[in-house]
């Protein structure tokens, strides 16, 4: 029983790592209506942004997270404006393919600049605390808290600010939003800035546990997609729920299946959800 | 044969495998407006099916090719079943996961696939008899097969079936109203496409005499997207041309990169990969119709068909 | 017309003469350069290793060129990327063999790439030197055109088992990703441990995950006194962090190619890696090549792959010198004459080439081991270098 509880706890922790990039991915989808597959590169960019701020400039975690957000968000917004937006008339899938290609471009710009060496943050690692027979990582609680804080800020932004409301309106019905005088391009750009930025923050949190190299974001990207689809593409609460479900499923699966198949868990979850409940846990119509 | 000739023959053969993959992608992307990001997975299915049939089960090579076609078609059918009702984005994500899962299975089910060791010693047709001419003969055979598949796809394209597919691509609702059974069309097209990708896999395996999970990484899918986009989405001949352009581009960048002084090998490698991605973005942006734009033949008049 | 022609030639000849005087031995080496190649992973999963290997090979070649080259010819090194992918690796190898016409390809890393490239090499009579670990590689019908410096799993794991027992550990848990030597590593280590009264549990993990908390829990339930972390650097970073968080107090051992100075720097926290053991193939304690690698490559603790590729280049260059011919077949036929069988002990190609030119018999003792090969291309035997992380530095415990 303890084993299952412990695995579930581990699952929540790894789910939190997935949550931020999944929110970023789904938020961009909600507003722009195409899957921005460049999230792997955004996460990696965030990891490098945070790393440069932390290791070179000596910034503390929170400031480094802001740097991660800024770098990934700005690059995301730039490539949206320069490379992706002009492709929109060709249809969402064309944009999605270009986004995949941009993954390769960004990965290799980072490789060209930094090489393949693994980088680490200058932040201490702490031992787990034991509580009622379970072990909990204080740091990962911190990560969880950070992730939750970011999510809360995002919800507040969407619920209470004018531009946030405009964003939701655009996501719900772009034509109606335009009628109401909302400038869609501004909203879209902001959505990419925030979405890519969140992927960057997620990438840095990921880098804290793993390492920073050109493939940092790439390693988790399938789980991130799985989280977004399971939660319902386009739904922000859904992305959080989906991330936790994927995290839990991956860790609990290690008790039943060979741990080598962890990466396949997300795929199976996608297939199950799409067969049984295509719109995902909290999503809208999927067809 | 030796030297440049040998190298060029090898590139022609490899370009042929890419061309089949491009034809496969073109059928569904250009034909039905669906996107398969798991091309590498179907490529792997065919390569493994044929390798296992010929090496482990001792079947003749022809049986390997047929097996690859069947396994590929079944794989394509299964993958699309759960997603055809959904928007294309979902199919894209499912296929992405599918390719990774196939790679995981190939890596871990050692009893079947020999794991990360891969399967070596895959027979090539008449390899011993042809000796040094094997590569040239195989390249010629591959090109012939590419032409055959191109011809068949063209026939398909011009048939009422092809027109129906395009109708599905242009507007699902209208096609549905017109009484087209969209779901069936999409699944069938995807299965045929997957079978072609699997055929490319089988060809690859018998040529290189070795397959391993590492071959089937996502980058190859990006190469093929570049090929189809550059050649012209919707034009089978464009897909073939695009595939050869891509392989030429991949190889030419080796020589070009070497001409840039004062860079480390890893920087050369980064530039080469970066150029592939950049080329795809630029083609989609500046020449979305590709080099050979699609031209849709007018539907025959009722009088002439009856 | 004639006048202008002669003036031109005179000027050219003068300039050429001046240049010859001004230039070091490098350029005076005459004739077509001897072409050799590295084929290492510069992108993809092997990315953390390939660039250093290419750099090490280039350093050796530069050193030899400075000393006048081989057979009076300059050595030219071509470095290609195998993308950690056999398909890309084969394309690169074809170019190296057919266009560059290299005599040897060195440094292939992923076993899959080596297995794919090997047939091209033996068919075209090109020498292949590899660091891949899969046991199946030397079983290929390579006709002698393949040598590898990485010990096969039988040699490696048997010694590891003995060493683990000597550390006093009895309950060992092996955590390993899926690689070509995973199965043999698990069975061989279990056998080796059982012989000494120990036992083993094992788990094969997915090497791309950002956390191994549940895997670590599973390992700890076995209650091990030693964990063998048998992955590569990127996944071992995550694993070591999670073992630390879980409060594992037992011993940890891993391959030196995985737990290297870069990993230690990456983790950057002494108590996470303190006391971790590493092991790598090595020559005898009195060998000098390891110290030379440090100097030539410019690093304090060269990882095992760097040492191995250093050995590849040295062996190939000396074989060319001994055969007086720069072809794959010549290298195949003479590499064992310079690598083993007694003679003057040599730790680098510059000295080796001098000795060979002077008619001496040489026996190369490399940085990764004595570099003596059996007929299959496997190393016959080697010592192992056991190190331990102390205050963020790898410190030598023993060579045995």
Distance separating the two termini of chain B: 55 Å
Query: What integer value in Å does the Rg of chain C equal?
Result: 23 Å
By DSSP (H or I, 4+ residues per run), the number of helices of chain C equals: 15
What is the subunit arrangement here? heterotrimer
> Biggest sheet of chain C: strands, sense, closure?
7 strands, mixed
Helix percentage of chain C: 40-55%
Greatest interface by residues involved: A-B, 46 and 45 residues
End-to-end separation of chain C in angstroms reads 75 Å
Strand content of chain C: 15-25%
- Judged by helices, strands and strand pairing, the structural class of chain B is mainly alpha
CATH level-four homologous superfamily name of the largest domain in chain C = Response regulator
Give, in spatial order, the strands making up the sheet with the most strands of chain C: 7-6-8-9-10-13-14
Label the structural class of chain C: alpha/beta
Order of helices and strands of chain C: HHEHEHEHEEHEHEHEHEHHEHHHEHEEE
Question: Quick one: overall form of chain B?
Answer: globular
Give the overall shape of chain C.
globular
Q: Which fold does the CATH topology of the largest domain in chain C refer to?
A: Rossmann fold
What's the pLDDT, averaged over the residues of chain C? Answer: 91
Low-confidence stretches of chain C: 1-29
Proportion of residues in extended strands of chain B: under 5%
């Amino acid at each position: 029983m303890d084993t299952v509880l412990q695995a579930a706890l581990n699952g929540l922790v790894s789910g939190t790592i997935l949550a931020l990039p999944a929110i970023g991915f789904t938020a961009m989808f909600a507003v722009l209506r195409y899957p921005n597959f460049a999230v792997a590169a955004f996460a990696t960019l965030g990891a490098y942004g945070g790393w440069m701020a932390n290791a070179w400039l000596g910034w503390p975690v929170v400031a480094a997270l802001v740097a991660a957000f800024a770098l990934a968000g700005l690059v995301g917004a730039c490539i949206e404006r320069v490379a992706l937006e002009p492709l929109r008339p060709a249809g969402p899938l064309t944009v999605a393919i270009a986004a995949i290609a941009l993954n390769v471009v960004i990965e290799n710009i980072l490789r060209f600049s930094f090489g393949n060496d693994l980088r680490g943050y200058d932040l201490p690692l702490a031992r787990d605390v034991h509580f009622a027979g379970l072990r909990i990582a204080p740091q990962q609680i911190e990560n969880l808290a950070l992730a939750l804080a970011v999510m809360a800020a995002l919800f507040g932004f969407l619920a209470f600010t004018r531009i946030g409301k405009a964003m939701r309106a655009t996501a719900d019905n772009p034509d109606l939003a335009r009628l109401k005088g909302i400038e869609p391009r501004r909203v879209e750009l902001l959505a990419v800035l925030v979405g890519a930025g969140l992927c960057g923050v997620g990438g840095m949190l990921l880098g804290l546990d793993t390492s920073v190299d050109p493939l940092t974001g790439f390693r988790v990207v399938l789980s991130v997609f799985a989280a977004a689809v399971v939660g319902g593409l386009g739904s922000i609460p859904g992305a959080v729920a989906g991330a936790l479900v994927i995290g839990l499923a991956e860790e609990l699966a290690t008790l039943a299946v060979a741990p080598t198949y962890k990466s396949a868990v997300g795929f199976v979850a996608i297939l199950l959800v799409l067969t049984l409940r295509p719109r995902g846990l909290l999503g809208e119509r999927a067809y | 044969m030796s030297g440049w000739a040998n190298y060029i023959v090898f590139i022609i053969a490899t370009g042929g495998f890419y061309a089949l993959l491009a034809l496969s992608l073109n059928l569904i992307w250009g034909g039905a407006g669906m996107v398969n990001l798991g091309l590498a997975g179907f490529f792997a299915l065919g390569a493994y099916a044929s390798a296992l049939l010929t090496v482990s089960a001792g079947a003749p090579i022809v049986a390997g090719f047929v097996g690859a076609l069947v396994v590929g078609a079944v794989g394509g059918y299964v993958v699309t079943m759960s997603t055809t009702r959904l928007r294309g984005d979902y199919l894209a994500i499912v296929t992405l996961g599918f390719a990774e899962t196939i790679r995981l299975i190939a890596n871990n089910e050692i009893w079947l696939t020999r794991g990360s060791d891969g399967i070596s010693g895959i027979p090539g047709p008449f390899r011993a008899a042809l000796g040094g001419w094997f590569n040239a003969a195989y390249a010629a055979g591959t090109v012939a097969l590419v032409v055959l598949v191109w011809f068949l796809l063209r026939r398909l394209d011009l048939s009422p079936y092809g027109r129906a597919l395009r109708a599905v691509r242009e507007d699902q609702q209208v096609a549905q109203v017109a009484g087209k059974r969209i779901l069936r069309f999409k699944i069938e097209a995807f299965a045929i496409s997957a079978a072609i990708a699997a055929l490319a896999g089988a060809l690859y395996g018998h040529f290189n005499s070795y397959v391993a999970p590492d071959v089937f990484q996502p980058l190859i899918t990006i190469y093929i997207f570049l090929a189809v986009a550059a050649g012209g989405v919707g034009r089978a001949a464009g897909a073939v041309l695009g595939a050869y352009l891509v392989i030429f581009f991949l190889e030419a960048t080796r020589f070009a990169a070497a001409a840039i002084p004062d860079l480390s090998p890893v920087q050369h490698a980064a530039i080469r990969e970066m150029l592939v991605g950049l080329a795809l973005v630029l083609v989609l942006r500046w020449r979305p119709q590709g080099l050979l734009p699609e031209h849709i033949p007018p539907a025959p008049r009722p009088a002439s068909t009856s | 017309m004639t006048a202008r022609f002669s003036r031109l030639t005179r000027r050219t000849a003068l300039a050429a003469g001046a240049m010859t005087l001004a230039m070091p031995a490098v350029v005076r080496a005459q004739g077509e350069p001897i072409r050799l190649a590295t084929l290492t992973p510069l992108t993809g999963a092997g990315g953390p290793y390939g660039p250093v290997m290419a750099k090490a090979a280039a350093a050796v070649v530069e050193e030899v060129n400075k000393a006048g080259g081989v057979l009076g010819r300059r050595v030219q090194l071509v470095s290609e990327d195998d993308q950690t992918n056999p398909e890309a690796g084969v394309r690169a190898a074809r170019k190296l063999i057919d266009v560059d016409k290299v005599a040897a390809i060195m440094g292939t890393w992923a076993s899959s790439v080596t297995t794919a490239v090997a047939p091209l090499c033996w068919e075209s009579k090109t020498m292949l030197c590899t660091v891949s670990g899969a046991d199946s590689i030397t079983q290929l019908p390579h006709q002698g055109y393949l040598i590898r410096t990485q010990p096969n799993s039988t040699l490696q794991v048997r010694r590891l088992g003995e060493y683990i027992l000597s550390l006093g550990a009895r309950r060992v848990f092996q955590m390993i990703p899926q690689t070509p030597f995973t199965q043999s590593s698990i069975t061989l280590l279990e056998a080796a441990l059982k012989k000494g009264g120990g036992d083993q549990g094992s788990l094969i993990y997915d090497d791309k995950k950002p956390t191994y908390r549940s895997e670590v829990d599973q390992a700890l339930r076995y209650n091990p006194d030693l964990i063998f972390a048998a992955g590569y650097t990127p996944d071992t970073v995550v694993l070591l962090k999670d073992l630390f968080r879980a409060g594992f107090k037992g011993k940890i051992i891993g391959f030196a190619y995985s737990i290297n100075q870069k990993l230690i720097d990456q983790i950057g926290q002494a108590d996470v890696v303190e006391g971790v053991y590493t092991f790598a193939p090595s020559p005898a304690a009195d060998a000098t090549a390891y110290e030379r690698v440090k100097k030539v490559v410019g690093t304090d603790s060269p990882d095992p792959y760097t040492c191995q590729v250093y050995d590849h280049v040295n062996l190939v260059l000396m074989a060319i010198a001994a055969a007086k011919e720069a072809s794959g077949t010549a290298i195949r036929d003479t590499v064992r004459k310079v690598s083993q069988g007694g003679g003057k002990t040599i730790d680098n190609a510059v000295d080796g080439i001098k000795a060979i030119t002077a008619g001496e018999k040489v026996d190369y003792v490399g940085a990764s081991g004595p570099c003596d090969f059996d007929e299959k291309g496997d190393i016959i035997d080697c010592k192992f270098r056991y190190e331990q992380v102390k205050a963020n530095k790898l410190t030598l415990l023993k060579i045995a």
